[in-house]
């Protein structure tokens, strides 16, 4: 679907950035993952159940971590990253519906999925608040949102360093260092079940559930 009004320029910029970076992305992110996010993908994906939607799925680095029996749909903004993800799915023998899509405007009806997953994606999506709202919209009552993200540290010295680095990070990779997805999760009415922070508070693992009853507001 088309990027949302008011964010189309930023969204197209992200698409171009990650199209250009697609072939080297895995090589570049691997050492960062070992340093900061070790075990994070497994933590998130092992909790997925039923009809699963992964947003901002990148090059498919999560594909090998999902448990048997899930029915997986992945959406990714960058066509070139999606190509790599499809290649990885073939190599792993994983069945998944891998399609182009914008996490800010998901092409699915309300209450379509039992689980929504996002790993290291909300930092680059132009409107991360909208992406969380869309994730909540497509979740069925009782469904879970599972996140692995780098976030704004609660520690002042670390947060100060993040603030200094953030302009360059956004300029080069549209990678926002000061985002707080927990706030958005709470604002859309999801109930936080598990929240783990590590690495001076900059790494966050979060599991939240959509209430069984209709959300108000």
What is the CATH first-level class name?
Alpha Beta
* Total number of beta strands: 7
N-to-C series of helices and strands: HHEEHEEHEHHEE
The low-confidence parts are: 1-6
Which strand order does the major sheet show? 3-2-1-4-5-7-6
State the separation between the terminal residues, measured CA to CA.
26 Å
CATH architecture identity: 3-Layer(aba) Sandwich
Structure, explained:
Helix content is about 40%, strand content about 25%. With about 220 residues, it is α/β, with parallel strands linked by helices. It has one domain (about 10-210): Rossmann fold, CATH 3.40.50. The chain has a 7-stranded mixed beta sheet with strand order 3-2-1-4-5-7-6, sandwiched between helices. Helix 1 (about 10-35) packs across helix 3 (about 80-90). It starts with 7 loop residues before the first helix and ends in an 8-residue tail after the last strand. Residues about 1-5 have low confidence and may be disordered.
Short structural summary:
The protein has helices at 8-37, 40-45, 79-92, 128-138, 156-173, 181-187, and strands at 51-55, 71-76, 96-100, 113-119, 139-150, 191-198, 203-209.
């Amino acid at each position: 679907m088309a990027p949302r009004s008011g964010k189309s320029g930023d969204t197209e910029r992200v698409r171009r950035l990650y199209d250009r970076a697609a072939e080297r992305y895995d090589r570049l992110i691997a050492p960062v993952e070992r340093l900061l996010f070790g075990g994070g993908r497994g933590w998130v994906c092992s909790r997925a159940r039923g009809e699963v939607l992964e947003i901002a799925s990148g090059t498919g680095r999560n594909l090998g971590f999902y448990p048997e029996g899930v029915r997986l749909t992945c959406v990714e903004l960058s066509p070139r990253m999606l190509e790599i993800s499809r290649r990885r799915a073939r190599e792993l023998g994983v069945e998944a519906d891998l399609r182009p899509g914008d996490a800010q405007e998901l092409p699915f009806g309300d209450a379509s999925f039992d689980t929504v997953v996002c790993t290291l994606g909300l930092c680059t999506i132009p409107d991360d608040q909208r992406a969380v709202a869309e994730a909540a919209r497509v979740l069925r009552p009782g469904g879970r949102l599972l996140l692995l993200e780098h976030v704004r540290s609660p520690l002042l010295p670390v947060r100060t360093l993040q603030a200094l680095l953030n302009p360059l990070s956004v300029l080069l990779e549209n990678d926002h260092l000061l985002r707080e997805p927990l706030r958005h999760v709470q604002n859309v009415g999801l109930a936080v079940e598990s929240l783990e922070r590590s690495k001076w508070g900059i790494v966050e693992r979060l599991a939240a559930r959509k209430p069984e009853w209709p959300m108000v507001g």
